[in-house]
Amino acid sequence: MFWKKKNPEEHRYYLLPGMGKSNRRRHQQFVRWAIVVGILVSALVGGFIYYTNRL
């Protein structure tokens, strides 16, 4: 009511080091870049296969 609700994410117990809030942000950034690179590589491979089959 008058007090602020506690954020359970801040007081979570982590088993391994590097599992805190800052590492979660870095992990999400890594996942985003992995998806972008995967899409680019698959487009390049698909284009290469398409080009070689057209010859």
What does this structure look like?
- 62% of the residues lie in helices and 0% in strands.
- The protein is an all-alpha fold.
- The N and C termini lie far apart (72 Å).
- The model has no long low-confidence stretch (mean pLDDT 82).
Topology:
Elements: H1 21-54
Coarse structural class: mainly alpha
Oligomeric assembly: single chain
* Count of alpha/pi helices: 1
Write the element-wise H/E pattern from the N-terminal end onward.
H
How many strands? 0
Helix content: 55-70%
Estimate the strand proportion: under 5%
Structure, briefly:
The protein is mainly alpha-helical. Helices cover 62% and strands 0% of the residues. The chain is rod-shaped and about 70 Å long.
Keywords:
about 55 residues, mainly alpha
